[in-house]
Design goal:
Blueprint (H helix, E strand, L loop, with lengths): L1 E7 L2 E6 L9 E10 L2 H9 L1 E2 L2 E2 L10 E8 L11 E4 L2 E2 L5 H4 L10 E2 L16 E5 L3 E3 L7 H4 L2 H14 L6 E5 L3 H12 L4 E6 L2 H9 L4 E4 L10 H4 L2 E6 L4 H10 E9 L13 H5 L3 E4 L7 H9 L9 E6 L3 H9 L6 E5 L2
Parallel strand pairs: 12-13, 12-15, 13-14, 15-16, 16-17, 18-19
Antiparallel strand pairs: 1-2, 3-6, 3-10, 3-19, 4-5, 6-7, 7-11, 8-9
Helix pairs in contact: 1-11, 4-5, 4-10, 5-6
The structure holds zinc ion (2 copies).
Length: about 350
């Protein structure tokens, strides 16, 4: 079978490897679709994501669907032929964070396709992989594509940050950044009952997708005068989600929420830190909250996609064969052309 391995910056190899065996409690999955995420791009381009550095060849990929090829002993719920979404999170379920219900903050998290631990957790950019049965969520409806099912992971990220914001029913929401996660944030806020959603970006194409999935208004923030506040045109927001990872966008969020408003940081900001009008947090009693990966919302995300309560199809912009993973990643980087690019096997 084919397997994608990143050995270091700009060194990605698609190699032949033996098909793994499903052991006790495990499921063998044949890849359906695997989305290319920002972190996968960083592993390929820089050999690292923030402080997670590649120390042995790493198979990236944590946003995948597939078809069950075989099951190991002790597997009872999942059967061969089932179409599944794979939850890439494996928290320890014993530490204080896990016991508090905040599994995404687990100190001993095993997250697929990540160099956060050593040996690395190998991901799903490969033809076959094994996963514990508990991490496989079955989608029975044959009309839902494997490409859609693979979007459950990025939807989970947005559902988690919506949860971090608290009740959104009737709220006015700002989302800065309209890539896959920004558009998922629009979808998640709609699910949660937001009354008005405004999205900003510096590129037209993703903003048009944001409108298709439910944004009321989109703004090219780069076309406003430098540092100009949004509020004269949009009014103030109850909640802002900073999804782009841009320091300037975080400033916009802090300036655009009402007194007592909430800002949720979802995007990855520069590692060296950022300059902020931090007194706004004090003087206007703004709640600045972080949101990291996702907690217990993966099945909710799969369910919403599986019965099309949400339609993630406008976010999917192409499928590439696994053999061309490097070219697919290059394509995924170009925000003027691509949203979610996925890898598939023939
Ligand atoms: Zn991702
Ligand atoms: Zn834990």
């Amino acid at each position: 079978m084919l397997e994608c391995k990143v050995h270091g910056a700009m060194d990605l190899r698609v190699v032949d490897a033996p098909v793994p065996q499903a052991v006790e409690g495990e499921v063998l999955v044949r890849l359906g679709a695997a989305g290319i995420c920002g972190s996968d791009m960083h592993y390929y381009l820089h050999g690292r994501v923030g402080s997670f550095v590649i120390r042995e060849p790493l198979t990236p990929g944590h946003e995948a669907s597939g078809v069950v090829a075989a099951v190991g002993p002790g597997v009872s719920r999942v059967r061969p032929g089932d179409r599944v979404a794979i939850n890439p999170s494996r928290p320890c379920r014993r530490c204080a964070a896990c016991r508090e219900g905040r599994e995404n903050l687990c100190r001993d998290m095993r997250f697929l396709g990540s160099a956060s631990v050593f040996p690395h957790m190998q991901g799903m950019f490969r033809e076959y992989f094994t996963a514990p049965e508990a991490q496989c969520v079955v989608v029975a409806d044959e009309t839902i594509g494997l490409d859609e099912i693979a979007m459950a992971e990025p939807l989970s990220v947005a559902l988690h940050s919506a949860t971090r914001a608290g009740p959104l029913l009737g709220r006015a929401v700002l989302v800065t950044g309209s890539g896959t996660i920004g558009c998922m944030q629009v979808i998640a806020c709609r699910m949660a009952g937001a009354a008005r959603i405004v999205v900003t970006d510096v590129v037209d194409r993703p903003l048009s997708v944001a409108r298709r999935v439910g944004a009321d208004e989109t703004i090219r923030i780069d076309r406003l005068p430098e540092g100009a506040p949004l509020s004269p045109t949009t009014g103030e927001f109850d909640v802002a989600f900073e999804v782009s990872g841009s320091p300037q966008a975080l400033v916009t969020c802090l300036q655009s929420v009402r007194r007592g408003g909430i800002v949720v940081q979802v995007g990855t900001l520069p590692a060296e830190g950022v300059q902020l009008p931090a007194n706004q947090i004090m003087a206007r009693e703004i709640d600045l909250r972080g949101s990291f990966r996702f907690g217990n919302v993966f099945e909710l995300a799969v369910g919403a996609i599986a019965d099309r309560r949400v339609d993630v199809r406008p976010l999917i912009s192409g499928a590439w064969p696994l053999q061309q993973a490097a070219r697919a990643i290059e394509t995924a980087r170009d925000k003027t052309r691509s949203m979610k690019v996925q890898l598939v096997v023939d």
